[in-house]
Amino acid sequence: xxxxxxxxxxxxxxxxxxxxxxxxxxxxxxxxxxxxxxxxxxxxxxxxxxxxxxxxxxxxxxxxxxxxxxxxxxxxxxxxxxxxxxxxxxxxxxxxxxxxxxxxxxxxxxxxxxxxxxxxxxxxxxxxxxxxxxxxxxxxxxxxxxxxxxxxxxxxxxxxxxxxxxxxxxxxxxxxxxxxxxxxxxxxxxxxxxxxxxxxxxxxxxxxxxxxxxxxxxxxxxxxxxxxxxxxxxxxxxxxxxxxxxxxxxxxxxxxxxxxxxxxxxxxxxxxxxxxxxxxxxxxxxxxxxxxxxxxxxxxxxxxxxxxxxxxxxxxxxxxxxxxxxxxxxxxxxxxxxxxxxxxxxxxxxxxxxxxxxxxxxxxxxxxxxxxxxxxxxxxxxxxxxxxxxxxxxxxxxxxxxxxxxxxxxxxxxxxxxxxxxxxxxxxxxxxxxxxxxxxxxxxxxxxxxxxxxxxxxxxxxxxxxxxxxxxxxxxxxxxxxxxxxxxxxxxxxxxxxxxxxxxxxxxxxxxxxxxxxxxxxxxxxxxxxxxxxxxxxxxxxxxxxxxxxxxxxxxxxxxxxxxxxxxxxxxxxxxxxxxxxxxxxxxxxxxxxxxxxxxxxxxxxxxxxxxxxxxxxxxxxxxxxxxxxxxxxxxxxxxxxxxxxxxxxxxxxxxxxxxxxxxxxxxxxxxxxxxxxxxxxxxxxxxxxxxxxxxxxxxxxxxxxxxxxxxxxxxxxxxxxxxxxxxxxxxxxxxxxxxxxxxxxxxxxxxxxxxxxxxxxxxxxxxxxxxxxxxxxxxxxxxxxxxxxxxxxxxxx
Length: 798
Hints:
798 residues, alpha+beta, Maltose phosphorylase, domain 3, 6-stranded antiparallel sheet
């Protein structure tokens, strides 16, 4: 804990608080309200609130919102936020109001912990803290306990009744019901569960995104009353109506619909027709975004609004129910004007669908949409070229990265919000080029590293406790940790992560069989490599099998671990890793090479099965597991259309492209043509963020994500290969400049580094690439000119 906050907690006498009556094991989905009044005289120049909870919080001072969003930590390694609150203070009577949501059931970005709230306030020279001077009550407005889950990877849907809430966050003349004092039995000491500072900046909650009604009509509800909100919305019978039949005050030309109707200044909705159950609206936010649901409306009736969210309208409506997933919640209105912002769980969507019922007077909708809550990282790098499509691909890829990073990297903010090592490698590599930010990847990889188990493999996600893990992802984690040190230059980070890496490598080395890493056996292990035929994973192997992708990743992880040892001061470990890598490489070719096919088989051993794929060939080249002539043959196969190999998908195409770009002079144009074709396909089909797979929303039984950060990989290839800038030593102390030619006639851009930006511009002239490199003092560019095609001028800036 930082000394200032430690002293503040101690001076205030702050204790962890939670009513013992609400602490029974098995209680889930609890929303409790906490309130503490205090008096200020005179008004201080500064004030701050320091707070930690399990699971999430929203805080107000005198009814003014001051913060939300507990960092996603481990239960025994809690973190706190420090919020400036002087802008919300006033002389005289004040109140701090804190809503705490306790999930109570583990999912893929949360581990069930002990419910609790800890806070302290520094108000000028005065301090106050959580304890027996606070009051509490169960929120009367939120439905408590078991409810439908959004998805198995996410927490619960919600139901909220605005009529049951009161002005509990305001200090003046408040006489709410149900409040009880915190008793001594409801507290426990700070040293029972120490806290440390939030390791990353807080999310930046932004203004409302523009929203417009793009479809509207009436609905009939025929489903059983015990169905979930999502099931109801999925089966409601919809009948479209033109705008003039549904809205008042809309100017129309004859009987023609004038949608979209922008939600600016309020849209007046007519009461439902007889024989219908209500009206529906489909609202377009313009692009996929992620943040907090925000509603503002006015009604004379306690109307009910069912709200679904999604990324597309492939079925001409939002898919509220997909398998066991429930992308819908319910808001019950109070009479009058009201605004509601839901901060417990972030929603990611392009479209909202509202089914509004139980109102018999006209209803005014002022807004329904999202308050974006991105991680506040600036775009320090950029890329420009003469190809408009490639420029647009880069823009959308950067946007995809942004909405998939919050408390840590996320695979998709819509369906899972999970931190996976495999996905995070793509995200980090891209982020190094467009954001030049190193704390975020280090914190994400540290969270994953804390999930190490005795078998040497990491938890599937972090922070999480998941009954299954993917062995190859743990190996990718070692690779991405080393890449983070390479790009950031943070050798102290290498030293800090080495104990985890060393334990992993030592554990694997004990299991080697004839020089190869066998697949671990048992139900815990999901042997996944790609969302492609024969690669999407066997689980629960009962006999020994050797997988070429696993061993290729193992070799790459050994190389990365050796570098971490070099940078972290453990030369003996580095030497041991290199020795093991020599042994694995020696066994690899003889085990997996199919002489007749001239390709590597994916599987070998008693549990093996015939299978050849692009990913296996790509990894053999990337991991230097074959000689130069074999690598040339494999690249030829990879660049041949209809090559008979199982094709890589968007998630793992990074390895296919990297293997081809090891001979960039010959295959460089092919790679970027493929990027233009596949990522252009998504753009031409309306993508505002890039998809999980090329099947879009129709994949995974209609649960395919349209915002998936592993598909942002073009950002990396544009910076590392079209601009041509790659570090060869930590912090870009030395770096190569080797742009691919024959793709575009000119390119320019900036690559951020810890020492400052590297600016590159070049153009093709008379068969050569002529350009300039401006680089920070102390960094050394290495112009790769084996082909004699490069003519670069280098300038040290500063």
